[in-house]
Design a protein that fits this description.
Elements (H helix, E strand, L loop, with lengths): L2 H8 L6 H17 L4 E5 L5 H12 L5 E4 L5 E2 L5 E2 L3 H12 L4 E3 L3 H7 L4 E6 L6 H8 L3 E10 L13 E7 L4 E6 L3 E6 L5 H14 L4 E6 L10 E4 L8 H13 L5 E5 L3 E3 L4 H9 L3 E5 L19 E9 L2 H16 L1 H4 L4 H10 L5 E3 L12 E3 L5 E3 L4 H8 L6 E4 L2 E2 L1
Parallel strand pairs: 1-2, 1-6, 2-5, 6-7, 10-11, 10-13, 11-12, 15-17
Antiparallel strand pairs: 3-4, 7-9, 8-9, 13-16, 14-19, 15-16, 18-20, 20-21
């Protein structure tokens, strides 16, 4: 369905179609773009907004649409009177339009306290609450890259919003303003000079899908590149083992990076946006990684149950906090103190440190977010991050050529 087809359904429901057409189209377009969460409308009235969002969602990636309203009597800023009887009209209009909308019949702010689903698009469309109030109640549920859209009676500066939001789109004719959540997110590569070009390819693939994420290159060498938003020179090498120094370098980097960090090997390649990785670290865990395909890549100092996995560190999302920085310091001490056991390997000591440190919340991500394709793999959903060296274009075309459960090896679906 095109926007013009949607407008044929929406126009008869609008009190002031010529005035509201621009606003309605903007919200429709935002709904088509919503990814990584559901759509929530605050304020239902007769259902025009909910139907519009549902039509946009249907024409986009199909996120679930909710409308939150208690349908209590009140008078809005423009003098409209909202009465409990509006609920019946709302339900009738939703039914007549044939769209899928879930009504949350509750106070807007009480609903925010118990809300659990990630939100890709939040629309504040009531006249009796300010955008600040909406943000304070609902902002924590919006995924990184999500959108908060609200209406105001007249244009005004955007400096009233909290610092971690920025203006995303402005449509003065419709008095609709959208603000995109910009959590402090960064991607981190730590490499020597010989791997800078490889990291540039990884960074360019990330920038294609998530240009707002900071791309930070840290290196003990003097390097230059336009692929990164930030390049930092690290302290000199101290160990003959790269990974021993690298663990120390991670701590140096984290001390200079924002609250959410995606740590990447240089041989990674993005095939889709991954805001959900940052969402995991923001809401659920301290670290999130994928199981290492080899299960155990080196010996450990102490015996650890075989059922306790080893994680691959090449794609790791972290909540940058004291707890995580202390963990990396422990890892450096463990590896540097037992090079005779681990050799130049950071995953085996990481497994051992995590076995002993139960204070860190670790989550396991699926292989679609760290697809170690050189070893062959089993995946179900579309692969979003490739990890390994090879012809990324050929692998990308092959590995996602089929859907659902599949085995893949050497550009062949098995």
């Amino acid at each position: 369905m095109s926007w013009e087809d949607a407008w044929k359904i929406l126009e008869p429901l609008s009190d002031w179609p010529e005035i509201r057409r621009h606003k309605i189209r903007t919200l429709y377009e935002l709904a088509t773009e919503a990814q990584g969460g559901c759509i929530v409308e605050l304020g239902a009235y007769h259902g025009l907004g909910a139907i519009n969002l549902a039509l946009g969602a249907r024409d986009g990636s199909g996120p679930k649409v909710y409308t939150v309203d208690d349908f209590l009597a009140r008078t809005a800023h423009a003098g409209q009177t909202y009465v409990p009887e509006n609920k019946a009209q709302f339900l009738k209009n939703i039914l007549d339009a044939g769209v899928d909308v879930t009504l949350v019949n509750a106070d807007i702010f009480q609903a925010a306290d118990t809300w659990t689903e990630p939100i890709a698009l939040l629309v504040g469309d009531t006249g009796d609450h300010s955008p600040d109030q909406f943000f304070q109640a609902w902002g924590r549920h919006i995924v990184p890259g999500g959108v908060f859209a609200h209406k105001m009676e007249e244009p005004r500066p955007f400096n009233f919003m909290p610092a971690d939001w920025r203006r995303w789109r402005e449509v003065p004719a419709g008095l609709v303003y959208s603000i995109k959540k910009n959590l402090n997110c960064a991607a981190l590569w730590i490499v020597t000079e010989e791997f800078v070009r490889e990291a540039e390819i990884s960074a360019a693939s990330l920038a294609r899908f998530m240009p707002d994420v900071q791309r930070c290159l840290f290196s003990p060498d003097q390097v230059a590149s336009d692929a990164f938003t930030r390049i930092v020179r690290l302290s000199p090498r101290e160990s003959s083992a790269w990974y021993a120094d690298c663990c120390r370098y991670v701590v140096e980097a984290l001390e200079q990076l924002p609250e959410l960090v995606l740590y990447l090997d240089s041989d990674t390649y993005f095939m889709a946006p991954v805001p959900e990785l940052f969402e995991m670290a923001n809401y659920y865990c301290d670290l999130a990684m994928c199981h290492a395909p080899g299960r155990r890549t080196a010996a450990t100092v102490e015996k650890i149950p075989e059922c306790f996995p080893e994680w691959n560190i090449g794609v790791m999302v972290m909540r940058n906090c004291d707890l995580v920085q202390r963990l990396w310091r422990k890892l450096h001490a463990q590896l540097a103190g037992h090079l005779d056991v681990y050799k130049d390997n950071d995953q085996a000591p990481f497994r051992e440190v995590l076995w002993r440190d139960r204070s860190v919340r670790v989550a396991t991500i699926t292989p679609e977010y760290n697809c170690r394709f050189p070893f062959g793999c089993f995946v179900t959903d579309p692969v979003k991050i490739l990890h390994g060296r090879g012809n990324y274009a050929a692998v990308a075309e092959s590995i996602n050529s089929k859907e659902y459960m599949r085995l893949w090896r050497d550009c062949m679906m098995l």
